[in-house]
Amino acid sequence: MKLCMIGTGYVGLVSGTCFADIGNQVICVDKDLKKINKLNSGISPIYEPGLEELIKKNFLAKRLSFTNNVKNAINASDIIFICVGTPTKKGTFEVDLSFINQCVKEILKYSKKRKIIVTKSTVPVGTGDKVEKLLKKKRKLFTLISNPEFLREGEAIRDFRFPDRIIIGSNEKKVFNIMKKLYSPLISKGAKFFTTSRRGAELIKYASNAFLATKITYINELANLCEKCGVDIEDISLGIGLDSRIGGRFLRAGPAYGGSCFPKDTKGLVSASNKFKVDLSLVKTVIKSNENRVNLLIQRVHKILGKKLKNKRIAFLGVTFKPNTDDMRDSSSLKMIPYLSKKGAKLSYYDPSGEKNEFKKIKNCSYKTNIKSNCHNADLIIILTEWDEFKSLDFKKIVKNTKVKIYDLRNLYNLKDMKKNKLKYYSVGRSS
Ligand SMILES: NC(=O)c1ccc[n+]([C@@H]2O[C@H](COP(=O)([O-])OP(=O)(O)OC[C@H]3O[C@@H](n4cnc5c(N)ncnc54)[C@H](O)[C@@H]3O)[C@@H](O)[C@H]2O)c1
Fold this sequence. Notes:
This protein is of the alpha/beta class and 432 residues long. The protein has 3 domains: 2-196, 3-Layer(aba) Sandwich (Rossmann fold); 206-287, N-(1-d-carboxylethyl)-l-norvaline Dehydrogenase, domain 2 (Orthogonal Bundle); 295-426, 3-Layer(aba) Sandwich (Rossmann fold). It is built from 17 helices and 14 strands. Strand 13 (405-408), helix 17 and strand 14 form a beta-alpha-beta unit. The protein binds nicotinamide-adenine-dinucleotide (NAD). Residues 6-12, 29-32, 35, 70, 83-86, 99, 102-103, 121-122, 149, 151, 153, 260-261 line the site of nicotinamide-adenine-dinucleotide.
């Protein structure tokens, strides 16, 4: 099929590349010319394992191309996927739909014959209805479908190829077959194909993300209790996760949940429900608890190093919100590092995905290119992200300071081993 992805970010680029890889003709469009130029030279603008190789393969096979010319891309395609960002409006919980609206304007302007328009972006329930009204007003021939994306950064290619489910929401039943045909290579490998109304599909996405965010927040709050009552949170996670009604995933205590989806989607769900005059008090509480989590982590740093942080050398291992991605959106490091810098600490960080623009202007904060140079002088090492290369470090070898303390926000190490090695080790929800 001939597809066009408007928005070549984490979702548009990964799904566009993977659609090409299963035999479709795909044009990825982005208004960011730098991104397009990079892609046309075979470089992926994002860090996602396996993506660059897959881009090159499909680009060379002439199934995948990149452009900033939205007009040509729309005209050359039968199905148009909208994959632009839907961030939170500053200072509110409301979803900023300006990128979506801009796409719709462009589709209205340039599409000449009947098109299928698919919203992959996460949009509040009822957005499709509003877009449809606009399109109808201009007498454009189209079918508007909601097909929310569930891929996870860091595992995005696998998630595209082996999704748990493909959700298609439409009020026109006849398009289900077209979408089923498009996704047939994935369905034949076991992906469940679930059809519903367009509103249903829009809401499923928010409901899923808010549920997962709630699970993380719940285990984080239980970790606070464990620290006080001398119970190991890992036992709690396992003990409750073994109940098949609950399931063990998303029950790892750690920093606040972050990333490009959970923080904004929990807020977006509350904002949408307010419009329908429904109070989602549980989700509101989750948002509040998560926002407070960073303060608790900071208090713990004070507990470990004392009230005065001036000239204390703090080294971060990992700053992204999760491993195998370069995405910094809503990572706990974005609040911790500026706070600690204001308190006069001397900060450094190493992240396998490279240096971060977000910290370039932060006082006393330097990027190090490897674990050893980052840690060897540190008073405190904070393990923030669960990258594989942080999982079996010999701290005695990499740190010069024998009094170094380690604050492991991912519980990567065994308490007994750390004690045996006489390391001052602090973790989450475990007596240490
Ligand atoms: N990132 C994820 O893990 C993930 C997972 C599932 C769903 N989503 C949802 O998918 C959507 C996209 O997320 P993302 O992380 O890929 O965003 P992103 O910010 O990485 O990418 C969006 C891209 O769209 C481009 N763009 C914006 N307006 C445009 C226009 N009019 N024409 C052409 N290009 C335009 C931007 O330049 C940018 O490159 C969001 O709604 C998000 O909630 C994201």
